[in-house]
Predict the structure.
Amino acid sequence: MPGIEEIIKNSNEPDVTKAVFDSIQSFGDNSKKNYNELRKSHEEMKKVLDKNDVDTLVTEKVEKLSEDITTRQNAIDGDIAELNTSITKRLDEIEIAGKRPAMASGKDAEKIEKDVKDFYNSLRATQVPDHGAKFSMNQKEDTVISMEEYQLYAKNFEAWARLGDEKTLKTVPEMLKSMLVGSDPDGGFVVPTAMGNRIIERMFEVDPMRSLASIETISTGSIEWLVDFDEADAKWEGGETVIIGESGTPQLKKKRINVFSLAARTRLTQTLLEDSAINIESWLGKHVGAKMGRMEAASFISGDGVGKPRGFLTWPNGEDGNYGVIEQIPMLHATKLTPDGFIDMKYSMVEQYLNRGTWLMNRSTVRETTKLKTGDGDYIWKPGITTDAMATILGLPIRMSPTMPAVAANALSVALADWKEAYMIVDRLGISTQRDPFTQKPFIEFYTRKRVGGDVINYQAIKLGKISA
């Protein structure tokens, strides 16, 4: 296998390739430092707790150490997410640079064509009227799409964000023509594919739900399917000539997930837009993605399903195996966590889901788990065995979510699930942006909108831990 120096030397763009490896090295060094300090704090905290000396100074020291542990674990998780984003960005730069000498071919051409198709699908999803451009809703699915038209549109999107409405654009006929390709009925423009991807990436970084749950992308207002949550009946025949009676058949249920509008309003001054070299796509992608990410993450966890996705915490408590209820496992104390509560949660789950289980809880809740020991004296929380591994509770990985409730009486502070099986996020194709230069003068407001839904799809694949006796 070639070494790093050889890869850089043979690259079409050695400077960009070197930057990729430098980024990996930088993140790796930072994670290693945090990891080493985390393990050091964990070992020190265990020594303090194992002495069983309970006084104010000891309690304060344990609190500081546990806070340091969770802070560093959170930093490691953040480094991993940021590294993935950075590598993706750098690889995109390499891909773009690799296309400069000649026309794209092979896989590069396939990727460009896929981006263009995604864009035109977004237009179909937003029911774009025919403005006389090459694409219209009347076209058949197999109609040849215009890659040149899309590239011109993407190029002029930032110019539109700077210059403004159609009256301004009419001074540049070619620009106006290209922008009308992506005009949506609400007076905005469909976001180019590359920028839309950046917004989604930012949403992935904000909260772990998008990286945990299953995701479907649709071009309608909802998705529905039949669910077989029962099982067929069967009986033993009493003998060679004995015929059993009619067996029961499973009852099918219909599951439907609607999508709802999620929007973000961000502002820049007209002067900054006119005079600055700011990258509009990068700026919008960063701020809109972060804001939307926080909003939708909260709804995936605690949303009531009215005008927003339904969160898994809002389903009623019920016996495992029943449809429409999620079993709540008592954590065996009215105001705090207990090791036995975690053990009960883990082994209440069906084995096929348990094998892919991941804990989800607030950072402060994770901090409390670092102090818990079983009756044998083993700590239930353990750091990852490598710098890029997640910490575990009873051998299952943990993810931190700021939306999960903190430990309090009757709070559902802990969740354990096979998340791909338990929860589905539904994205409707297309993100659109409107530019408003009038409402908040001298600011230019960008109103960015997408449609998203979410709900529990398998009630047996998730368990909730309730702080109660």
Confidence is low (pLDDT under 50) at residues 95-105, 127-144. The first strand starts at residue 189 and ends at 190.
